[in-house]
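The passage that follows is intended for readers who have already worked through the single-chain material. We present the inputs for a multi-component assembly, then the predicted structure in tokenized form, and finally a short commentary. You are encouraged to pause after the input and sketch how you expect the pieces to fit together before reading on.
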Amino acid sequence: MDNKDKKTPLLVQMGIFAAILFVSQIISSLFPPTFVVPAPLIGMIILYLLLLTHVVKLSQVENLGDSLIGLISFLFIPSGIQLAGSLKLIQNEGVKDVVVTVFATIILLVVITYCGAFFIKIHRGLEKNMDKRGEQK
Amino acid sequence: MNGLATPFTGILISILVYLIGVWLFKKSRGFFLFTPLLAGMVLGIIILILIGKYMNVSTITAYKSFYKPGGDIIFWFLNPATVAFAIPLYRRNDVFKKYWVDVLLTLFIGGFISLFGIHMISKLFGLSRVSIASMLPQGATTAVAMPIAKSIGGDPAVTAMVCILNAVIIYALAEFLIKIFKLNRASKVGIGLGLGTSGHTIGSAKAVQLGSVQGAMASVAVVVIALVMDILVPIYARLFM
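Having made your guess, compare it with the prediction:
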């Protein structure tokens, strides 16, 4: 396919992300305030569709994209430090909130993981049945 | 000191505390409390408290004048980083094509069960109605969860804190939780969806490290669960609260 040695210049990669975010922002503002869909999520769908339709090639975004994903825990540092502004909130009533959040996070992780495993098991079971029926016919 | 109230201060603090976190994590051979995000965030908050004490202002003022200008610049890069999760998804498009029905079912039904679980645990701890309403939308990413919380009578500031904590908890504890709940025996698709839902984009980054299938599924989960919560939480709140 593409010549792998020929890297897309960083500025072009940044341009692609900037253009996607620009369009997403416009689309995002069309949703009503009761049904918020933030621009980055729309952007992710747009980039996915652009890759699927080969308008954007993987090689044109993957360098910058992979670096950004690799940096994501660092990019979250400001959000974490932002809690310095909520210290009062935590002191007053927040300890309970924090404990409940720990449980809630575990609930989300475990419930969704096992739900997913359950549906996939059914899916595979159905596939096997179909195969068997196919063989019998 | 007021000359230091520029973006560079916040950027420098962020990089410094994160690198100290990375160093601590290495030195402690991967002790979960020293994951760079958690250690860096705690160190950063301590630094701001100290600056506040030294300058005789509140921590919030210290945060707003010394940290926020730089912090916002780094924070902005979460936008393209979130967009970038289309890449791991596209790389394993075969998995999504095969299982998209299962993914939707899991996130709708699993999302509903989780809402019920979060509601019950909140009641068990005797949280106020406002706090419960702030807890419910946390499966969605911060930007989606905050307005949902507001619309059902919660406090968006609490919801923002909860969503950040989700990410911090998953980043620090994912391996441990996967081990004790034996999630490894569940399917790769399931783990991916679970991590994307519980830890948002940080969960997806974790999932990418675990494998390409997990990474792709976590990326899908971040988007789909946000839409699911947009729809489910108001209905749930009307029916059960």
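Commentary: The mean pLDDT of chain A is 89. Chain A touches chain B through 80 residues (CB under 8 Å). How closely did your sketch match?
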